[in-house]
Every structure is written in C-alpha cells, then in structure tokens.
Amino acid sequence: MRVLAVFRKTVREQMRDWASLSMVVVLCPLFVFLYWLIVGGGSTSYKVLVINRDAGITLAERGLVKEGDRVVEAMRGLRYQSGDPILRIQVVEDRAAADNNLRNRYAAALVVFPEDFSRMLHADPETRARCSPVILSGDAANVAYAVASVLVFSAFEAITKKLGGYDPPFNWKEEFVGGAKPRTEFEAYVPGLLILSIILLVFTTALPLIREREEKTLRRLRVSRMTPFDLLGGISLAQLVIGALSVVLTFIVSVALGFRSEGSIFAAVVVGILCAGSVIAVGLVTACFCKNATAVLTIGTLPFFLLMWFSGAAMPLSRATLFSLGSRQFALNDVLPPTHAVIALNKILSFGASLGGVWYELAMLGGLTVVYFAAAVWIYKRTQLRRE
Question: Residue 235 CA to chain centroid, in angstroms?
Fold first, then answer.
C-alpha cells in the first residue's frame, strides 16, 4: 500500500509540473511532426540543378534527337515506392547562379550536359572517349552532395542504358563549386562541433536567470529599479563572453590539430560569436518557461534539439522552400539561427568568403538575435517578474 501511496503522490506532483511532463510525453511526437513539416512530409528528395547544353544529333530514322532532354525527363520520373521523387530536377541556364545555389545549399548537386552529349551516346567507345564529359558539381563539404552525387551517377547510367542500350563508361568530370577541395573527415566535422558547442549556451544562459529566483536575489535587484532589459542584457553579455571564448578556443585547437581554412579564421570567429548571441537569446526565452534548474534541463532539451537537428548542424536536411525573394529562398528552419551560421561558416571555411560575402547570413543572425531577445524581455516581464 505504501508503494501505491508514493505512486499517487508522484503522479500528482508530476501533473502539476506540466512543462517537464510535456517534454517527456510530447517531445518525440513533436519532433516527428516538425521533421515532416520541414522536409515536406515524404521521402528525402535531393534537389539537383541541370544545365542542358545538348545540341542533339540528326539520325536518319529519327531525325533530330536530343538525348539530354530524354535523360532529364527520365531523371524527373525516378520515384520511391511511395511516389515521392528521388531527385528534384530544376533546369537552369546560368552556371554562376547555379554555383551560388550550391554555396547557399539551396541545391545538392549540379549536372551539366555538354553540347555533344547525344553524339557521345550514339558513338562507338573510341569516339565517345574524345567527347566532352558530363560535369557533376557540388559542395565537397555538403553531406547532401555526397548522397546526391551517388544517386545522380547511378540513375544516369541506368536511364541512358534503358533509353537506348548505351553501355557505360561515359565521360564524367567532377568539379567542386568555387574550387573547394574535399576535406578530411576531421575537417568536415569541425564546423558542426563548433555549432554544437554554441548551442549548449541555451542551458548556461537559462540557469543563471533561474538561479536569481531560487536564491531570492531577484527581489533585491527589483528594489534597485532594475528593468527586465537590464537583467537579461547583463546575463547575455556575460554569456556572450563565455561563448566568444569557446569559439576562439575551438578554432585554436582545431588549427593546431591540422584544420585548414580557405578563408579568414577571424571572419569565422565573428560568425560564431553572432551565432552565440542569437542562441543566448533563445536561452533567455527558454528560461521564461522554467520554474527551477531541473526544469531547465528538461524543457531546455526542446530548443537544444531543435537548434541542433533542424538547422543542418548535425545532419543534412532537404529544404522545403516556403517562398523566394529574388535569389533568396526561405524555408521553415530559417527561423533557427544556426541554420545561417552553418551556411556562413561553410562559405568562409570552404570557399574563402570574406565577411562581405556572408552579409546576408550575418544580417539574419543579427535580426533573429534582436527578435528573440525582445521576445525574452516581453515574456519575462509578464511571467517571471509577476511571481515575485
């Protein structure tokens, strides 16, 4: 009977702590829903850009034939058993714009069909070897390119053989956008580890704010006519110093262990510090919904995993674009600051971009920081301060 009494007591206490309970019960279903929402609800499809320069070839029995068009349409028709496309093909004309989309990770790969593509398919092996190659291009640091390139290569050979019985090998040439070279496995993981260390600031930011309530110091601070902006701003500055120190030390250790950057480490540090500022703002919002330190460790898992898994820091995600403005595409996970930090760091570390080359990502990080910090001040004033 004592066991049942303790059981009833624990259930009642847990029901009162609805925030922590929801993190355990609702977190996984919520992540399933968010993943469905962000990736479009179906199987992962990789966006592949195609520049089709195939001029075609005139055959006596068929007239003008453009095998490039047939291959593109056949690649569009590749489907999973569910009916979802394996490759999302978009035909473009401008190579510079296509390379820019690869840098921004709006697409996973680029395929360029040469002018003599049709002639290559209908030629004998000796003549075929002298034809221009099919170019496969992408970002060597993008995990999505590694997957998409294998799918493109396999699909291409299967399709061309099915269309006309053309036997491989074909002329292929792999190019990495911006001249970026494939990095070692260690170098490929360093940017993600940096983002992960920054995301941990969610917890270190929320805990000092909760400690002010638990130690009853918040009441004394309010007597001094301190505003929510003063309190949250002071905590944010302290955490920003910690975040900046973590970013700098991470790069120092990485370089000492052999990490190579195509661009300025200083520029990468600036991106890391701005990302830290935005994550700190998210941590402040998190603290507004926590009653104690234990709640921070449970409720804080939600923003932590959102920032880690759905920003592209831990795993590649296909972008479900909501709308476009000019050359910029906006997806649902663009509201997560590390999404822009991942892209900016990739441009700097892999392509040698300067701070001017990542102005858009810097602007998004700054804007999101302001939005989340303002939200934290507003929520804190109406929730936490009213309890004191």
Answer: 28
